[in-house]
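pasting NADH:flavin oxidoreductase/NADH oxidase for the record, 369 residues
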Amino acid sequence: MSLLFESIQFGSLKLDNKIVIAPMCQYSATEQGEVTYWHEQQWANYALSGAGLCIVEATAVQPEGRISYADLGLWNDIQRDQIKTLLTKIKTLSPMPFAIQLAHAGRKASTDKPWDGKGQFKPEEAHGWQTVSASDLPFNPTDHPPHALSQDEIQKVIQDFADAAVRAVDAGFDLIEVHAAHGYLLHQFMSPLSNKRSDEYGGSFENRIRLTLEVFQAMKNAVPHDYPIGVRISATDWMNGQDSWGVDSSVGLSKALEQLGAVYIHVSSGGLHAKQEIKIGANYQVPFAEAVKKVVHIPVIAVGMITEAQQAENILKSEQADAIALARAMLYEPRWPWHAAAALGANIEIAPQYLRCQPHGLKELFKAF
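structre below
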């Protein structure tokens, strides 16, 4: 029996297999942060993939929390209602659960779409606005400096995460993921490279993780009692020789999140500093997931350059992680789970309309929903 195709429990939510579609920004929303037809076809594609869970893209809890002017938002009820309508349609295609990643980009906001390549817009430019962060340090030296959040503004961020969580539940999502990775606002507060505060949100490790824990707790308090919330973290800033966020800090954060009720830790890395030195290669982030898995009792998701079925299976067999997240591999091959099932000799449930395409000689491989 393939471990990859065994079920797994994320709190109250059961997945049919351990393949997770990681959140990937599409930069295809309206300037009001609302869904478009692009999201409809993209989410439908995800729904028919055979994965155990889909986490849709980073979705901003405040207008100024968007990475770009074309990012999704969930800061108002119009956005919620449009997502609910779309998600209701998508769920007629497949029983696969859908999750949403709630986020705030902090100082890495106010940018162009990546394929247009203009970088960050200044506040006075079209598509631009004033960014915020833990301190007034920009991500790039050429960026407009962010505004350092006041205590009252921090409380507003916390409340907006909680309000967005309520909207996510109302919209029909089965799980919420908190985006505390990739150099965005929560990560900016956690790393000493970007947080130079002297109040209770800066300085010590306990102070720097305070915002992430308070955001998580506020969201937990706002949603139904057993509603599952997971967290994505960057395990390291990839800044060797500097006082930065690293694996030991991630281990401490993960233990604290587990105590608050997180249903999983999704382990990525990087994104905090423009001069990061990432050693990219197959499984390059898996050791970070393994380090977290050793100290928590909730599932740990590994991600990053995992592209082959046997590779994913081996990560699970060696107990380096409990589930596998795929991003670009799923964009390149939206039926990756089908091919993985064939390679590992596992059964997978798919839409009955597709049953006729199962590989010759593997007549029992595909089963209908």
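The longest helix spans residues 151-171.
The chain has one domain: 8-336.
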